[in-house]
Amino acid sequence: MKKLTLAFTFAAMLPASVVFAQQKMDDMKMMDMMKKPAAYAQATHMASGVVKKLDAKAGIATIAHEPVASLNWPAMTMGFMVKDKMLLDELSVGKKVNFEFAQADKGYVITGVK
């Protein structure tokens, strides 16, 4: 009878321990997710390229940039949003620029132009 009672007690505790373990894993995942936005916001990258197109209304500069080592990107042409539309005053089609950018919620954003 003792063995049967012990077996039932163990069997009853097992689902509870699985639930607690799952909850702990979920909590850890949530903590990781909360850390990522801050890490992305702090990461900035430098690139050089030639301005191909400007869309002042949308706040987008299309740049044919050289490889970006910090992101392991090859050279390509892509549209970047600008953090502040006043940055567009420093850009003109055909101009070679050095620029700083960061990842945002919906793409990459130019944060500075040199």
Task: List the defining traits of the structure above.
114 residues, alpha+beta, OB fold (Dihydrolipoamide Acetyltransferase, E2P), 2 domains, 5-stranded mixed barrel, 1 helix
Rg, please? 26 Å
Uncertain stretches: 33-41
For the largest beta-sheet, the strand count, sense and barrel status come to:
5 strands, mixed, barrel
Helical percent range? 25-40%
Total tally of structural domains: 2
Could you spell the SSE succession in H and E letters?
Answer: HEEEEE
The helix/strand class is alpha+beta
**CATH architectural designation of the largest domain:** Beta Barrel
CATH topology of the largest domain: OB fold (Dihydrolipoamide Acetyltransferase, E2P)
Structural features, described:
Helix content is 36%, strand content 36%. The chain has one helix and five strands. The chain has a five-stranded mixed β-barrel with strand order 1-2-3-5-4. It is elongated, with a radius of gyration of 26 Å. Residues 33-41 have low confidence and may be disordered.
Describe, in short, the structure shown.
With 114 residues, the protein is an alpha+beta fold.
